[in-house]
Design brief:
Elements: H1 2-16, E1 33-46, E2 56-66, E3 72-83, E4 96-108, E5 115-127, E6 131-145, E7 150-160, E8 167-177
Antiparallel strand pairs: 1-2, 1-8, 2-3, 3-4, 4-5, 5-6, 6-7, 7-8
């Protein structure tokens, strides 16, 4: 776990390091105001959750709020993650659904054709048979401006504060922002 945190930290530093002395406007950033988006992908359980659950899927919706010519934005997100129980799981272990509502801060790199970004935030997570719990998430990704939308891909670690051991997941999401 500690190695994963170090790897994410190093990737964040590399992505956020300035490319040069010039300050360029990230092309994938919304010019001003809000933009919405959707995404989906694979979700990987790690830690104790991986003992009873298989890899699943994730669906997300977001609203990104940005000021003109700023590489930073605030993102409100609703994320659903689904994990089926393993055949080898003890009897009575259900499939796991995780629904989260949260906010993240996003910092984009300045680039001519795409924007790498790091993001981190807090959320409220509702887990099957485990109630509603607080948690945090952090990760990195890439935004590429396309003809009618901005394509996005991101990888994040979600850390949910549950009793005993925390619930950990890594969703890998591919999406679009309009």
């Amino acid at each position: 776990m500690q190695r994963l945190v170090y790897a994410i930290s190093i990737a964040a530093l590399v992505v956020s390091a300035p490319a040069g002395a010039q300050q360029a406007v990230p092309p994938a950033a919304p010019t001003i105001g809000a933009s919405g988006g959707v995404g989906g992908g694979i979700a990987i359980p790690i830690g104790s959750l991986s003992n009873t659950q298989t890899a699943g899927y994730t669906l997300s919706g977001l609203v990104d709020f940005s000021a003109a010519e700023q590489p930073y934005s605030f993102r409100a997100e609703l994320i659903y993650q689904r994990y089926d129980r393993k055949a080898s799981a003890p009897a009575g272990v259900p499939n796991m659904n995780i629904l989260s509502l949260g906010g993240s801060l996003l910092a984009r790199s300045a680039s001519k054709s795409s924007s790498a970004f790091i993001l981190g935030g807090i959320a409220v997570y509702h887990l099957t048979n485990n109630g509603t719990k607080p948690g945090v998430n952090a990760g990195f990704g890439l935004e590429v401006p396309l003809t009618f939308f901005v394509g996005m891909v991101d990888v994040r670690l979600h850390y949910v504060l549950t009793e005993g051991k925390p619930t950990l997941t890594i969703p890998i999401t591919l999406g679009a922002r309009f």
